[in-house]
Design brief:
38% of the residues lie in helices and 28% in strands. The protein is α+β, with helices and mostly antiparallel strands. The longest helix has 26 residues. The protein starts with 7 loop residues before the first strand and ends with a helix.
């Protein structure tokens, strides 16, 4: 294998699974190459937010350790996904005057107008986690993506601002740090999934990315190359599992098994033989097993799928971009793998639907070329771009190894004491 630089690691701490992916940049080829990946069951996470730091720390450590073992390398820093049911997004605008004599717009002017647009009033228990420029306006000329070097007297910007509870960000950072890793960057998981699955044409002509997780579903709308709307819906794959568990009075693990192996959320996909196929269900408390048909199972799952996409439809309508999504919808996340989900979405929303398969890293195997790995692949791609920008600005990572070693040593001594 060609010589690689320090590996780039993405970490997706989800409600049901914690995934780590390690890739190395090959200078000779100018491409990212897959080095290691892992997926372990999550603990201590509810609705995308860490609620038990010790449990989350253990899952993070295990996921990174397995990826390191597969790659034969040690990680120093990780690029982490940020999500949660309480994430909120809204649009804002800012405007500044260009006072210099030559009227040429500089980097400082761009930063100044973005800062001005970010000066919004938010509750004391929340913080801004992302400020995403949508477009710039120079002297009433709109639709400008990058105004650097242009001449003008007035610079305006439209931005999309995402806020979250302060504790949500602090808890995920603390969990990662306690595992011995350094957080290189925090990125919204919906934006990371978009980075790994969307094309430039889709972003330009209008597309909605829907990331269906365990307990939440994230929606991000892109149009003219920028994020226009984001929101989180408190429904996910676990709600389908719970419906089966309640309807059949079965344990959650048994309900999850039935959903994964036999579940379907769109009745017309089942042929006559499949509808009559009988499934055996293990009951709670050691009672005798029961049987049900696949048709009955589908009747349990389809209403939940319709509820999810009805809420998504309402949110898209509320955003005002309902008629501007020429590229349709892209589905990612483990919840999108339930058979029938794309069909329900297409029927209710009346637009093109496709599953988002992550790309951008060489050597991706079939297990990782799946919508459920879209976020972690996108985090690696985001980390690679972040490193490239840091290199150009002269901010290297030479001291990361020493800091990571000190963190590992400190936490090791801490555990010995207690």
């Amino acid at each position: 294998m060609a010589k690689t630089l320090q590996p780039i690691v993405g970490l997706d701490v989800g409600t049901t699974q914690t995934r780590a992916l390690m890739a190395g940049f090959t200078p000779e080829q100018g491409r990212l190459e897959l080095l290691g990946a892992s997926s372990v069951p999550s603990k201590g996470v509810r609705k995308g937010v860490v609620v038990n730091i010790e449990a989350a720390e253990e899952c993070i450590r295990q996921a990174i350790s397995e990826a390191e073992h597969m790659a034969g390398l040690e990680a120093e820093q990780v690029h982490v996904g940020l999500s949660g049911a309480h994430m909120k997004g809204h649009n804002g605008r800012g405007v500044v005057a260009i006072a210099r004599r030559n009227r040429e717009i500089s980097v400082a002017d761009i930063r100044r107008v973005i800062d001005q647009a970010s000066a919004v009033s938010i509750p004391s228990d929340r913080e801004i986690v992302e400020v995403l420029p949508q477009e710039f306006v120079v002297d009433d000329q709109d639709g400008i993506g990058d105004p650097l070097g242009m001449l003008g007297m007035r610079l305006e910007v439209a931005v999309h601002i995402v806020t979250s509870p302060i504790t949500a960000k602090q808890n995920i950072v603390t969990s990662v740090n306690r595992s011995g890793m350094i957080v290189g960057d925090l990125t919204l998981e919906s934006l990371a999934a978009a980075e790994a699955t969307l094309t430039e044409e889709e972003r330009e002509y209008g597309v909605a990315l829907i990331d269906i997780g365990g307990e939440i579903t994230s929606l991000a709308i892109f149009q003219r190359g920028a994020v226009r709307h984001t929101t989180v819906i408190p429904l996910g794959g676990n709600h389908f599992t719970n419906d089966i568990a309640v309807g059949l009075r079965a344990p959650i693990p048994e309900a999850e098994r039935i959903k994964r192996n036999f579940g379907c959320s769109f009745g017309p996909l089942l042929d006559s033989c499949e509808r009559e196929t009988m499934l055996e269900v293990v009951n709670v408390g050691g009672r005798a097993a029961r049987t049900l048909s696949r048709q009955l199972l589908c009747d349990m799952l389809q209403p939940r799928a319709e509820e999810l996409f009805c809420q998504i439809q309402e949110e898209i309508h509320r955003s005002g971009y309902e008629r501007q999504l020429s590229s349709g919808l892209v589905l990612t996340g483990g919840g999108s793998l339930l058979p029938g989900i794309p069909e329900v979405a297409e029927r209710l929303l009346d637009m093109p639907i496709r599953l988002g398969i992550p790309h951008g890293i060489d050597g991706i195997v079939d297990e990782i070329a799946s919508p459920e790995f879209a976020v972690v692949v996108g985090l690696v791609l985001h980390g690679a771009r972040h490193r490239s920008q840091s290199t150009r600005t002269g901010r290297g990572t030479g001291s990361l190894r020493q800091r990571s070693a000190r963190l590992r040593e400190w936490f090791s001594e801490f555990k010995k004491i207690f």
